[in-house]
Design goal:
The protein is about 25% helix and about 20% strand. Bound molecules: beta-D-glucopyranose (BGC). Keywords: Carbohydrate metabolism, Glycoprotein, Glycosidase, Hydrolase, Polysaccharide degradation, Secreted, Signal.
C-alpha cells in the first residue's frame, strides 16, 4: 500500500507504524450489548470451518453460513435502494435522489419502511442501501442512487432509510464507503481528500447512518488517499470503528478485495465478502481462502476472525432475525396498493417545479398535447415509456408503469379534455409542426425529455439524451405554452432553452418509479402543490462546478490514478457561494409552489453554559444540542401547501464555507395558517473538524444564522456565539 503523503494526518500514521493494524473488536456499545452477548455465546459453539463460512456471502442454496444444529440461518441479501433488485413482484420506488428532493423525513422513512416490508416478505435479511456518497461531480453516473450534494441532507436521508428498513427487522447496508463519488475508473482511482474534508463532508452521512443503528457498511472499489478502501486502516479502522464505534459488519463491494489485499482487508475491518467474484478469482474469505491461511499463520488473529463472526451474528440477533424470519423466496408477491399510493405520493412530492410563468396549476384548464411520452414496458436506458431511475445494480424491474400518456388519458376521460400524443424523439422538424397544432389559446404542449445514466459510467455532459434539448426548442418554437418535463439522474443544463419565452414551465422529475405518470399528473393538475427542493445546484454551465470526472481514464490501470479533491469543503453551493457564481437554480431551490409563505420572528437561543472547546470524535457529546432556533412560517397564499424552511450556518472557523445546511423541516400549512418551527443544532453542526486535536472544535466568534426557502433565498438572519472554556 502507498499512502498519499499530502493529506493523511501524521498523528494517525503513528499508530500504524508499529506493524499490522488490527481493528478494535465490537464492544456492544450504543445498544448492541445484548445482541453481542448472544452472538458470543452462539459463536463459541461454532467450529473454525463454520466461522470461516460466515465470512462469505452468496444467495445460493445451500445457504452459505447456515448452521442448522445451532439454528443460525445465515443471510440472504438484495441489491437496490429503489426496491428489491431482480425479483419479480417488487415495487419500483422513485430513485433515492427523488427521495432526497422531497426534503421530507417522514416520506423518506415511509419509503424505507415499504422497501423493508418487501424485503422481509421475500425473506431477504440484508437490503443494500442507503447510498450516501455525495454528488461531488454533477455528472456522476450513480448520483441518482444517492442523496444529493450536501452531507447534512444525505445524512438525514440516510438515517431515515436505515431506520425505516430496519423497523421491519431487515438489515440495511450503508454504502459505498468511502470516496466512491464517480464511476469513471472506480476500481483504480484513489480519492485523495484531507482529514477535515473527509470528516465534514464524505464521512458525515455515514456517521448519521451509524448513529441510526445501521447493521452493515459496504466498502467501495476505489482507493482512499492511496490505499484501497476495503483494506484501509484509516477509513475503516480509525474513522468507522474507532471514531464512530460502528458495531455492525463490513461487506466489501463485489470483487473489491483485490488479490493480495485479503489480510489487510480483514485486519482493517472487513468482515465478509461475496464468494469469489468474478467466479474464477481465488476466494478472499471463507474456508480454504487466503483468510483461512492467514488465520492459520496468525497474520490475521483468531480474535479478529471471531470478531468478524460476532459482528455478523450480533446484527442477526439485533434485528430479531433469530425469531420467525420468513423463508427466502424472491418470487413472493410483495406488491401492495399502499405501496403504489406511496410511490405516487413520493413521486409528486419530489418533482421540483423550476419554472411556472403562469403561476397557476399547469393544466387546470382543458388542453391539447405535445410530444414525447411513449408506451411503457421499456428498460432504464430507453427513450420510450417512463424514466424510472438510472440503470445498474439498483435497477428494479417495475411490476407495471403508469406512463405520462396513460395518466393524461385517464384525466382526459374524467375531465372531458383532449390529449394529442406525438411519439417520436428524433425528427425535430416534424415535432415542430406537430406542436403547432397545439398552439391554441387553450392548449398546453408537454415535452417529455430525459437524460439516461447508470452505474459504470459518468455522463459526458448535462444535456438531454436523444437530442431532447433540441426537441424542447422545436416544440417551443411553435407552441406558446410549452411545459417541459425533464427526467434526470441529477443536474442538467437548462440554459439553451430554459429562458425561451414559450417554455412556460419546467418540471424536474428525476426518476419517479412505477407511478411516474400519476405523480406528474398530480402536479400538472394541482392536486399536489409542489413542495420539493433541489438537492443539488443546477449550474448555467457545466464548467461552473468545482470538479468533473476525467473521462479519459476509463482504460484499466494497474496502479492508482489520483483524483485529488482539491476543492476541499467547497462542493456544490459552497463553491458557487465562495466564487460568487450565479447558478441557473440554486441548491435548495424551492421550486414554484402554487402558494406563498412568509417567514418571521426568528429566535436564536445558544447554550449559555461554558463549553469545552473540543470533544473527541467518539464522544457522545458530539450530538449534544447546543442551540435552538425558532422561526414562524405563515402560508400567505390562497391554497394549502407544504413549506420546507432551511437553516444554514455561517461558521467563524477558518476556511469555513459562507454557509452550510444544518437543518430543514416540512411544514404543512392551510391557507392563512401559521406555525412555529424549531431547529436543534448539535455540537457537530456547529464545530469544524480539528485535524490537529482530532476532534470537533467549536470556533470562537459569531455563528451567522440564515433561515430561508433555499440557499439563496434567505428570509431571516441572526447570529450567536458561545462561551468556551
Ligand atoms: C455495485 C454495488 C452492488 C454490487 C452487487 C457492484 O458493482 O457497486 O453497489 O451492490 O455490484 O450487484
Amino acid at each position: 500500500m502507498h499512502i498519499a503523503s499530502l493529506l493523511v494526518p501524521a498523528i494517525a500514521l503513528a499508530s500504524l507504524a508499529s506493524g499490522q493494524y488490527v481493528v478494535p473488536a465490537a464492544d456492544g456499545s450504543d445498544g448492541w450489548a445484548d445482541a453481542l452477548g448472544k452472538a458470543k455465546a452462539l459463536v463459541a459453539q461454532m467450529t473454525q470451518e463454520e466461522k470461516l463460512n460466515i465470512t462469505q456471502q452468496n444467495n445460493d442454496f445451500p445457504r452459505v453460513g447456515e448452521i442448522d444444529r445451532l439454528g443460525y440461518t445465515g443471510l440472504f441479501y438484495a441489491d437496490g435502494a429503489e426496491g428489491i433488485r431482480g425479483a419479480s413482484y417488487s415495487s419500483a420506488f422513485p430513485q433515492a435522489l427523488n427521495g432526497a428532493a422531497t426534503w421530507d423525513r417522514n416520506l423518506l422513512y415511509r419509503r424505507a419502511v415499504a422497501i423493508g416490508q418487501e424485503a422481509r416478505a421475500k425473506g431477504i435479511n440484508v437490503q443494500f442501501g442507503p447510498g450516501v456518497n455525495l454528488m461531488r461531480t454533477p455528472n456522476a453516473g450513480r448520483g441518482f442512487e444517492y442523496n444529493g450534494a450536501d452531507p447534512y441532507l444525505a445524512g438525514q436521508a440516510g438515517a431515515q432509510h436505515v431506520q425505516g428498513v430496519q423497523s421491519q427487522g431487515v438489515m440495511s447496508t450503508v454504502r459505498h464507503y468511502i470516496g466512491n463519488d464517480q464511476e469513471t475508473g472506480r476500481r483504480w482511482t484513489s480519492s485523495n481528500m484531507g482529514d477535515r474534508t473527509a470528516h465534514e463532508l464524505y464521512l458525515w452521512p455515514f456517521q448519521d447512518a451509524v448513529k441510526a443503528g445501521v447493521a452493515s457498511t459496504m466498502c467501495s472499489y476505489n482507493g482512499l488517499n492511496g490505499t484501497y478502501s476495503c483494506a484501509d486502516p484509516m477509513s475503516l479502522g480509525k474513522w468507522l470503528h474507532e471514531e464512530l464505534k460502528f458495531q455492525g459488519w463490513v461487506l466489501s463491494d463485489f470483487g473489491a478485495i483485490t488479490f493480495g489485499e485479503e489480510i489487510d482487508a480483514a485486519n482493517a475491518g472487513v468482515d465478509t465478502t461475496r464468494v469469489a467474484d468474478p467466479p474464477s478469482a481465488p476466494f478472499p474469505f471463507g474456508p480454504g481462502s487466503a483468510l483461512s491461511a492467514a488465520v492459520a499463520n496468525n497474520s490475521v488473529s483468531q480474535d479478529r476472525l471471531d470478531d468478524m463472526v460476532h459482528r455478523i451474528v450480533s446484527a442477526w440477533y439485533k434485528l430479531g432475525q433469530d425469531q420467525d424470519y420468513p423463508a427466502y423466496n424472491t418470487s413472493v408477491n410483495s406488491l401492495s396498493k399502499e405501496h403504489n399510493e406511496l410511490i405516487r405520493e413520493i413521486g409528486a412530492k419530489s418533482i421540483v417545479l423550476l419554472k411556472n410563468s403562469n403561476s397557476v396549476d399547469l393544466l387546470g384548464a382543458p388542453f391539447g398535447g405535445g410530444a414525447g411520452a411513449g408506451p411503457g414496458g421499456f428498460g432504464p436506458d430507453s427513450d420510450q415509456g417512463n424514466f424510472l431511475g438510472g440503470s445498474g445494480s439498483s435497477y428494479v424491474i417495475p411490476p407495471y408503469q403508469v406512463t405520462l400518456l396513460d395518466a393524461l388519458n385517464q384525466q382526459a376521460r374524467e375531465q372531458n379534455t383532449q390529449v394529442f400524443a406525438y411519439l417520436d424523439n428524433f425528427n425535430h422538424t416534424v415535432q415542430a409542426s406537430q406542436a403547432s397544432t397545439g398552439n391554441l389559446a387553450w392548449a398546453t404542449c408537454l415535452v417529455d425529455v430525459r437524460q439516461t445514466c447508470g452505474e459504470g459510467y459518468d455522463r459526458a455532459n448535462l444535456t438531454a439524451s436523444w437530442g431532447g434539448d433540441q426537441t424542447i426548442l422545436s416544440v417551443a418554437s411553435q407552441c406558446a405554452n410549452t411545459v417541459v418535463i425533464y427526467s434526470a439522474c441529477g443536474p442538467f443544463n437548462t440554459t439553451t432553452w430554459g429562458d425561451h419565452p414559450n417554455v412556460t414551465a419546467i418540471l424536474n422529475a428525476g426518476g419517479l418509479g412505477q407511478e411516474a405518470g400519476n405523480s406528474l399528473v398530480d402536479v400538472l393538475y394541482g392536486v399536489v402543490n409542489p413542495s420539493a427542493r433541489l438537492p443539488y445546484t443546477l449550474a448555467q454551465d457545466i464548467s461552473d462546478y468545482p470538479a468533473l470526472p476525467d473521462l479519459t481514464i476509463e482504460t484499466l490501470n494497474t496502479s492508482f490514478v489520483d483524483i485529488d479533491y482539491n476543492e476541499g469543503l467547497f462542493i456544490d453551493y459552497r463553491w458557487f457561494d465562495k466564487n460568487d457564481i450565479a447558478p441557473a437554480f440554486e441548491f435548495g431551490f424551492a421550486g414554484l409552489s402554487y402558494t406563498t409563505y412568509k417567514y418571521s420572528n426568528l429566535s436564536v437561543q445558544p447554550s449559555t453554559a461554558t463549553l469545552q472547546k473540543t470533544v473527541a470524535a467518539s464522544s457522545d457529546e458530539v450530538f449534544d444540542c447546543l442551540a435552538i432556533i425558532t422561526v414562524d412560517i405563515t402560508n400567505s397564499g390562497q391554497i394549502g401547501g407544504s413549506e420546507i424552511p432551511q437553516l444554514y450556518i455561517g461558521s467563524p472557523a477558518d476556511g469555513a464555507p459562507i454557509k452550510v445546511l444544518r437543518g430543514f423541516d416540512t411544514v404543512g400549512l392551510d391557507a392563512g395558517a401559521k406555525k412555529t418551527v424549531e431547529f436543534q443544532l448539535t455540537r457537530r453542526d456547529l464545530s469544524f473538524w480539528d485535524t490537529y486535536n482530532e476532534g470537533w472544535t467549536l470556533p470562537e466568534g459569531d455563528h451567522q444564522v440564515y433561515i430561508g426557502a433555499s440557499s439563496r433565498d434567505i428570509r431571516e438572519t441572526g447570529k450567536m456565539k458561545f462561551t468556551l472554556a
